[in-house]
Structure formats: structure tokens, C-alpha cells
Amino acid sequence: MKTYEKAPAKINLMLDVLHKRPDGYHEVEMVMTMVDLADRLEMVELPRDTIIISSQVGYIPLDEKNLAFQAARLIKDRYDVKRGVHIHLDKKIPVAAGLAGGSSDAAATLRGLNRLWGLNIPMIELQELGAELGSDVPFCVTGGTALATGRGEVLHSICNPPQCWVVLAKPPINVSTQEVYTRLRSDQISKHPSAADMIAAIQSGSFQEVCEQLGNVLEDVTLKLHPEVQQLKEAMMRLGADGTLMSGSGPTVFGLVSKESKVPRIYNGLRGFCREVYAVRLLT
Ligand SMILES: C[C@@](CO)(OP(=O)(O)O)[C@H](O)COP(=O)(O)OP(=O)(O)OC[C@H]1O[C@@H](n2ccc(N)nc2=O)[C@H](O)[C@@H]1O
Ligand SMILES: Nc1ncnc2c1ncn2[C@@H]1O[C@H](COP(=O)(O)OP(=O)(O)O)[C@@H](O)[C@H]1O
């Protein structure tokens, strides 16, 4: 028996940090949605009680450090499943990019194994399992568009933003999510983006208003550490994007574009100085 799952990338349309919590995590308010750039997972049952991870790329861990491995082990332990699985990850989402590639693979593993092994675990319980693997995993379990609060695991589904093109550019730099949160001085944030205003913009169906409400307080930290991320944002706007923002802790920058005719110029212009550029649609 085998099954397949798609694991799409997420972008943060807004991200605000309220304060640091006693458990070390930060209380956040984020509006997140999915884009049509996805890893593909193939899950094949094994006759032995073991978990094997493989991938066509050589730059991700294939052992217990892999989030798909951790998701499979968690579901096996929690539901006492004495069966094995080989999970092949066809990676398309850039790694450590602020696009939740690993989290989405973990979420897809939870969904896929739930089906493969006929466990009938309700979605809400899969999200709770996901929260044990990472703050972004619960959102990735259900996808869509949502307001995420708490450390990111408390979700309220909202309607999808108006459809548009999303140009993603990942500069060749490494950003640690933990370091970005640690460096953020939440008492010194100059301007907090508003989740309520972003939700109102989405609900109004106005693409222009969504662009106006884009905001991410983690940009302050990552842009200071890596000025090339700011340059990428400026280049995107110069080339014709309607709005730009860094996703999550970065370093990927995305540009929202309403007119298809503008996309090739932005894509080709960015490719001039950034190797990893993608032009995709919102997953609505
Ligand atoms: C910043 C965001 C925005 O969507 O995404 P990415 O940039 O990672 O894609 C998320 O908050 C990242 O979520 P995720 O990558 O799942 O984080 P986790 O594995 O739970 O935590 C990694 C580290 O980030 C910090 N962390 C994470 C979430 C949070 N609300 N507060 C934190 O302080 C903690 O130091 C933690 O040790
Ligand atoms: N399935 C996976 N895909 C990608 N990275 C993974 C995976 N499992 C574990 N990792 C590790 O998780 C880290 C963060 O990867 P990723 O989820 O792509 O980042 P981000 O949350 O910033 O988008 C990387 O350093 C990578 O080595």
C-alpha cells in the first residue's frame, strides 16, 4: 500500500510579536496562507517496523532530525502502530527559507499516515500532534488561510485573499529562526502590523488593501543582519510588484502581483542576481 501527499509552502501576510513568554517562545499574531510551491511525499508501507526517509536532494537530514521522520515516529508511538513506512521527499520548497518546508512535510506525513494506516484521527488531534513538532506545523496540517496566535498553534480559519501571483526570491544566506526571535526586542518594535486590519482587507476582497496591510516585525531583525534582503525587497518593488514582504524569519522575500503581464519582468529581473526565484499562485 502507498499514498501521496502534497506539502505546500506557507507565507506570512502579516506577523506581529506581542511579547516573550515564560516558556521561551514568543506570543505572536500572524495571518498565514499557502502558495502553490510544494514538496511531494510518497509514503510506502514496509514489511518491517521501521521508518526510512529518502529524498532527491542531499542537503536535508534523512535521519531522526528530519521533521517527516519525527512526525512518523510520533504517530507510531502515540497510536501504538507496529508498522513501517518509507517516506520519499521530493523537495521543491527551498530549505530554511521562512516558507515552513520542513513543517509542511511533517504535516503531510501526519495526514498521509493517518490515511495509510486507517487511524481516523480527527484533524484537530493531528494539529495537536503537529504542535509537538513545531509552531508552524498545526497550520500546515489544515492549510488554507488562518489567523495564528499563541506561539502559532492557535488557529482561526479565515477566507482566502484575492487570487494573485506570488514571486518568491530566496537569497543564498542562512537565517536561524531561533536567533531572529532572540534578537528581537519586542519592547522596541516601532510599528506593529495589525491582524484585524489584514483580516478586514482580505474579507473586503481588495487586493490593494491586502498589499497595504503587509507587515512583519521580524524584518527589522533579519534586514539588519542581512541588508541584501532589503535590496531584494526594493528590487521587487522597482520591477513592479504591488507589495513585498519577508516571509517568517526569512530570508525569502515575496512579492504580490495582480497583473500576470508584470510577472516575467519581475521574475527575470530578480534572476539577474538571485538564483532561487519562483513565480507561483496563491493556493486558494
Ligand atoms: C517565524 C515563523 C513564522 O511563521 O516561521 P519560519 O520563519 O520558521 O518559517 C514561525 O514562528 C516559526 O515556526 P517554527 O519554525 O515551527 O518554529 P519552532 O520550531 O516551533 O521554534 C523554533 C525556535 O523559534 C523560536 N520561536 C518560535 C515560535 C514562536 N512563536 N516563538 C519563538 O520564540 C524559539 O526560539 C524556538 O526554539
Ligand atoms: N523535511 C525537511 N525539509 C527541510 N528541512 C528539514 C526537514 N526536516 C528537517 N529539516 C531541517 O529543518 C531546518 C529548517 O528547515 P525549513 O522547515 O525548510 O525552514 P523554515 O521553517 O525556515 O522554512 C533546516 O535546517 C533543515 O535541516
UniProtKB/TrEMBL annotation:
<dbReference type="GO" id="GO:0005524">
    <property type="term" value="F:ATP binding"/>
</dbReference>
<dbReference type="InterPro" id="IPR020568">
    <property type="entry name" value="Ribosomal_Su5_D2-typ_SF"/>
</dbReference>
<dbReference type="InterPro" id="IPR013750">
    <property type="entry name" value="GHMP_kinase_C_dom"/>
</dbReference>
<feature type="domain" description="GHMP kinase C-terminal">
    <location>
        <begin position="198"/>
        <end position="274"/>
    </location>
</feature>
<feature type="active site">
    <location>
        <position position="10"/>
    </location>
</feature>
<keyword id="KW-0067">ATP-binding</keyword>
<dbReference type="InterPro" id="IPR004424">
    <property type="entry name" value="IspE"/>
</dbReference>
<dbReference type="InterPro" id="IPR014721">
    <property type="entry name" value="Ribsml_uS5_D2-typ_fold_subgr"/>
</dbReference>
<dbReference type="InterPro" id="IPR006204">
    <property type="entry name" value="GHMP_kinase_N_dom"/>
</dbReference>
<comment type="pathway">
    <text>Isoprenoid biosynthesis; isopentenyl diphosphate biosynthesis via DXP pathway; isopentenyl diphosphate from 1-deoxy-D-xylulose 5-phosphate: step 3/6.</text>
</comment>
<keyword id="KW-0414">Isoprene biosynthesis</keyword>
<dbReference type="InterPro" id="IPR036554">
    <property type="entry name" value="GHMP_kinase_C_sf"/>
</dbReference>
<dbReference type="GO" id="GO:0019288">
    <property type="term" value="P:isopentenyl diphosphate biosynthetic process, methylerythritol 4-phosphate pathway"/>
</dbReference>
<feature type="active site">
    <location>
        <position position="136"/>
    </location>
</feature>
<protein>
    <recommendedName>
        <fullName>4-diphosphocytidyl-2-C-methyl-D-erythritol kinase</fullName>
        <ecNumber>2.7.1.148</ecNumber>
    </recommendedName>
</protein>
<feature type="domain" description="GHMP kinase N-terminal">
    <location>
        <begin position="66"/>
        <end position="144"/>
    </location>
</feature>
<dbReference type="Pfam" id="PF00288">
    <property type="entry name" value="GHMP_kinases_N"/>
</dbReference>
<dbReference type="Pfam" id="PF08544">
    <property type="entry name" value="GHMP_kinases_C"/>
</dbReference>
<dbReference type="GO" id="GO:0050515">
    <property type="term" value="F:4-(cytidine 5'-diphospho)-2-C-methyl-D-erythritol kinase activity"/>
</dbReference>
<comment type="similarity">
    <text>Belongs to the GHMP kinase family. IspE subfamily.</text>
</comment>
<comment type="function">
    <text>Catalyzes the phosphorylation of the position 2 hydroxy group of 4-diphosphocytidyl-2C-methyl-D-erythritol.</text>
</comment>
<dbReference type="GO" id="GO:0016114">
    <property type="term" value="P:terpenoid biosynthetic process"/>
</dbReference>
<keyword id="KW-0808">Transferase</keyword>
<keyword id="KW-0418">Kinase</keyword>
<feature type="binding site">
    <location>
        <begin position="94"/>
        <end position="104"/>
    </location>
    <ligand>
        <name>ATP</name>
    </ligand>
</feature>
<keyword id="KW-0547">Nucleotide-binding</keyword>
